[in-house]
Design goal:
This protein has about 60 residues and is an all-alpha fold. The protein is about 85% helix and about 0% strand. The protein contains 2 helices and no strands. The longest helix is centred in the first third of the chain and has 38 residues.
Length: about 60
C-alpha cells in the first residue's frame, strides 16, 4: 500500500508541475478547483475547474 501512495503522489506532483510549466497559474487554479470540487462532492466547483482546464488546452485551437 505505501508503494501505491508514493506512486500516486509522484504522479500528482508531476501533473501539477507540467500544468504550471505549460499553462501557468491558470492551469494550477483549474486543477485546484477540479480537485476541491471532486473531494467536496460539489459538481459546480468541479465543473468550473474542468471548464478552465478545457479552455486552456483547447485555446490554441480556437
Amino acid at each position: 500500500m505505501p508503494v501505491l501512495a508514493l506512486l500516486s503522489a509522484v504522479f500528482v506532483v508531476g501533473v501539477e508541475q507540467t500544468l504550471q510549466w505549460k499553462y501557468g497559474a491558470t492551469g494550477i487554479i483549474g486543477l485546484l478547483l477540479l480537485t476541491i470540487g471532486i473531494k467536496a462532492k460539489s459538481p459546480a466547483v468541479s465543473s468550473i475547474g474542468a471548464v478552465v482546464l478545457a479552455v486552456l488546452v483547447s485555446g490554441p485551437a480556437l
